[in-house]
Amino acid sequence: MRAGPISGIRQRSRRDGAAIWVVLTVTYMVFAGSVSLNEGLAAVGCASLGTLWWWSVGRRGGLRFRFDRESLRPLAPAILAMPRQTARVGLHLLRAVLGRAGGGATRERSADLAWATPDGEAAPATRAVGLLTASLAPDSYVLTLDRVHGTVVTHGLEEAR
């Protein structure tokens, strides 16, 4: 891929900024719950602040996410497992309320974690999706990630399964 002239970068940045502003405005209005002048002004203000943040800080960072099909693969099983895991956590919390269950446990895992030490252009995106899917389950979340050794320390509500 060949780099274009500087003016092309500026035009693309303006187009991206406008698209981000529109998406932020629409997202705010969807979650606002009502359409009113106050909500509209708040949406414009929040979208403007978010776009200004992206324009001044977000574009300067050296970390770029390039998603490919392989990096997004862990999302589907994690989302499909959510109802079952939510029910299991609900039962665990009910047992805790009744005094029949203890607290959680910290686990360290290093096997079968390809997302912890990815290679290539999509490595940051693969690692981010892996961390999201490991923390998406309602009964656990990632505490630390050692990228050098590929070790992940998680905290879970239930004892070792």
What structural keywords apply?
about 160 residues; mainly alpha; three-stranded antiparallel beta sheet; 3 strands; about 10% strand; disordered N terminus
Describe what you observe in this structure.
With 161 residues, this protein is mainly α. The chain is 56% helix and 11% strand. The chain is built from five helices and three strands, in the order ααααβαββ. A three-stranded antiparallel beta sheet has the order 1-3-2, with helices on one face. Strand 2 and strand 3 form a beta hairpin. It starts with 5 loop residues before the first helix and ends in a 5-residue tail after the last strand.
Uncertain spans, ≥5 residues at pLDDT below 50?
1-9
Q: How many DSSP H or I helices? A: 5
Query: What is the terminal-to-terminal distance?
Result: 49 Å
Q: What value does the average pLDDT take?
A: 76
* Strand element count: 3
Order of helices and strands: HHHHEHEE
Structural class: mainly alpha
Largest sheet: 3 strands, antiparallel
Order of neighbouring strands in the sheet with most strands = 1-3-2
Beta-strand residue percentage: 5-15%
Q: What's the alpha carbon Rg, rounded to whole Å? A: 21 Å
Helix content: 55-70%
Shape: flat
